[in-house]
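Q: Given only this backbone (146 positions), what sequence would you predict?
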């Protein structure tokens, strides 16, 4: 279903993604972080939907379609590195802190920090150009809103 997008994501020197593809890549990364601990709870799904609606100005129907497509893409995609690289290319640096904050929202959605989720965050944040300090600040903002 997403063969062309996957080929572009796995290209040696991928071109920046168009907005629809960047949206689905970000959504798939959110799904991947939610599934990292072996569970994909309704609370995490709801949080992903809220993030996508807020970030992209989508209505409920559009959000559900985007998330469902992202779930399929996440299952088919080879690795997190390529998602992250595509998002880094598609999202301006100033907005990437918001991406890391959105990822922390998913990690913290179930009220527990899992070792696998933490490890994935330590991998993804620097790949997005966000240093450990700024990632920790993003996590603290999410925890303080909690």
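A: Predicted residues:
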């Amino acid at each position: 279903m997403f063969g062309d997008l996957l080929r572009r994501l796995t290209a040696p020197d991928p071109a920046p993604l168009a907005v629809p593809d960047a949206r689905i890549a970000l959504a798939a990364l959110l799904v991947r972080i939610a599934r990292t601990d072996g569970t994909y709870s309704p609370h995490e799904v709801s949080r992903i939907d809220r993030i996508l609606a807020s970030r992209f100005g989508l209505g409920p129907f559009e959000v559900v379609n985007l998330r469902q497509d992202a779930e399929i893409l996440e299952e088919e995609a080879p690795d997190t590195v390529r998602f992250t690289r595509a998002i880094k290319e598609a999202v301006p640096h100033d907005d990437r802190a918001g991406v890391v904050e959105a990822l922390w929202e998913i990690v913290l959605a179930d009220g527990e920090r899992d070792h696998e989720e933490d490890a994935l965050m330590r991998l993804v944040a620097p790949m997005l150009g966000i240093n450990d300090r700024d990632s920790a600040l993003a996590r603290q903002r999410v925890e303080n809103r909690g």
